[in-house]
Amino acid sequence: MLTVKAYAAPSATEPLVPTTIERRDVGANDVLIAIAYAGVCHSDIHTVREDWGPITFPQVVGHEIVGEVTAVGGDVTKFAVGDRVGVGCMVNSCRECENCAAGMEQYCLAGNTGTYASVDRDGTITQGGYSTHVVVDQDFVLRVPEAIPYEAAAPLLCAGITTYSPLAHWNAGPGKRVAVVGMGGLGHMAVKIASAMGAEVTVLSQTLSKKDDGLAFGATDYYATSDKETFKALRNTFDLVINTVSASLDFDRYVKLLRLDGVWVNVGAPADPVSMRVFSLFANRRSFAGSNIGGIAETQEMLDFCAEHGIAPETELISADEINDAYERVLRSDVRYRFVIDTATL
Ligand SMILES: [Zn+2]
Ligand SMILES: [Zn+2]
């Protein structure tokens, strides 16, 4: 076992504190990664505060991890010491079910193993990236291209793939009108990726306060959802809507923005059930869908796509002792657009 530094939540109601945790020995198929940067995802906060259900404490979160390989197991063929790598939202899956066999480990029928707060296949509770080191099976490690700035690469492992996967699946590209609801960590990546894919991108945000950023990231239009005229002006417009907002919306009103065969995809999730009149979907043969991160192969494809197109998240680098303040700022949407922890400060 390897004892490493980390920042952990002692309970659902206390601030995160510096601590040490144990990492497993590097097994035959494992890679030891010295973590350089860890992104701060809204899910981290939901998890440690038990918004999504009870967890085991102390808990280290963080599933946007980049770093350097410092040791490999005897059977590792995909990575070598010195490689620049990433780890996203999952670190294992059953590898046998039909979804795993199809390369969609995120939809593992036995449940994928989350990077934190999950029971690993060996029965231990996984601990995330707010830490100096992590040991991960080589099959769940990604290669981070040199063209992506190191500290900016981290948020691609969750915010990047969570938006790339539905955009790719529902064919965002030339001739397609895509709307992105919400301009936070996920939303700003959806704008950059969809426009790089060639789609015509519109941002729907509560106010116009981030309009200049949205247009700079590649959107051609930007509307305030606080303005009723927006819903009249944009009725029957979009082929695809990526909803990154985790607050509940008036879905009857929003899905009317979809044109014929348009698809509404949720990647943000309110904690409570939502309600909608099914009649709202009849017109224009609309679909209401969800999407969860991406498979390992697709995550590599996303990283390579971002390198090729010069896309990277907008980040604000923080030291580990700023994490609790950063959480408060994420909850106020006061971040442009993703906090990244410099783990050298742990
Ligand atoms: Zn996340
Ligand atoms: Zn599976």
From TrEMBL:
<dbReference type="InterPro" id="IPR011032">
    <property type="entry name" value="GroES-like_sf"/>
</dbReference>
<keyword id="KW-0560">Oxidoreductase</keyword>
<dbReference type="InterPro" id="IPR013154">
    <property type="entry name" value="ADH-like_N"/>
</dbReference>
<keyword id="KW-0862">Zinc</keyword>
<dbReference type="InterPro" id="IPR047109">
    <property type="entry name" value="CAD-like"/>
</dbReference>
<dbReference type="InterPro" id="IPR036291">
    <property type="entry name" value="NAD(P)-bd_dom_sf"/>
</dbReference>
<dbReference type="InterPro" id="IPR020843">
    <property type="entry name" value="ER"/>
</dbReference>
<feature type="domain" description="Enoyl reductase (ER)">
    <location>
        <begin position="11"/>
        <end position="341"/>
    </location>
</feature>
<comment type="similarity">
    <text>Belongs to the zinc-containing alcohol dehydrogenase family.</text>
</comment>
<dbReference type="Pfam" id="PF00107">
    <property type="entry name" value="ADH_zinc_N"/>
</dbReference>
<keyword id="KW-0479">Metal-binding</keyword>
<dbReference type="InterPro" id="IPR002328">
    <property type="entry name" value="ADH_Zn_CS"/>
</dbReference>
<dbReference type="InterPro" id="IPR013149">
    <property type="entry name" value="ADH-like_C"/>
</dbReference>
<protein>
    <recommendedName>
        <fullName>alcohol dehydrogenase (NADP(+))</fullName>
        <ecNumber>1.1.1.2</ecNumber>
    </recommendedName>
</protein>
<dbReference type="Pfam" id="PF08240">
    <property type="entry name" value="ADH_N"/>
</dbReference>
